[in-house]
Amino acid sequence: MDFLDGIRVFVAAVDTGSFAQAGARLGISGKLASKYMGALEDRLGTRLLQRTTRKLGMTAAGESLYARAPAWLDELEEMTSAINEPGRGVTGTLRVSAPVIFGEHHVQQLLRRFRAQHPDLVVDLRLTDAYSDLASEGIDAAIRIGTLSDSALMSRHLGSTGLMIGASPAYLAAHGTPQCLDDLGRHACIRDTNIRSRGGWELSEGGILRKIVVRGPYLVNSARAALELAVAGEGIVMSPDYVLAPALREGRLVRVLADVEAAPLDIQIVYLAGRSMPRRLRAFLDFLSVQKRDLFDPGIATL
After folding, report:
1. Can you give the pTM of this predicted structure?
2. 181: Cβ contacts below 8 Å, ≥ 6 apart
């Protein structure tokens, strides 16, 4: 067995959940895939997968290998392609993490445009409002919104997005509409913990920046969940403009305190420092430098 074949089988088995599907992906039988997997484990001297009649699960050693193996295979493919087919475009798998709603509305469009230029590229878009660990999850780059705190990452600024306050018509009919910042303290507020507000909502009224302490029955780490709670009439929400815009246009939410301003949130792409940059990532960053103006402007100013 070739060691490289064993690694490919291992990654495919984890991705698909079975040796039969891993074999189908690689063009070999499931029985041969299982044989390659066993030979790899013998060579490494450790069990990588736990086998049951229903599914495959990774051992601790398997999790450690899987954190690095997909990216290593991509790097190897890029290297060999550059040698064998120097005129070929970007290949391999580009893994990008992004916040859920922003990823659905903007990042997937951007990736479609990028892949149109590189048809041999595979895109793995992972949408989550939590910060992904790029190193352990094998992610090439992540779109992050807000203040960065991880000094181990390199970053490039892509743009910014504003924050707006909104509530459902039903909530406002039942509880009244806030007329000034101080009124927010008397309302149920839905707090999106992804917005690092340091103990309150930082808002400016009449050019004066204030921190307003808000309370309410819901703290969530999902912009979508915060939006849906607000639409359901559970309280007032402050969220990025691209999150609230559709609901505002459709009348499911009403904008509150439209003259109040919040500091815009930076939109940035981050990637690992201190490592050789894959060609696919370098090409993606170059693409972003040209495309970011069109794709990262949510265009909410007319609301």
Report:
1. 0.67
2. 203, 205, 210, 212, 257, 260
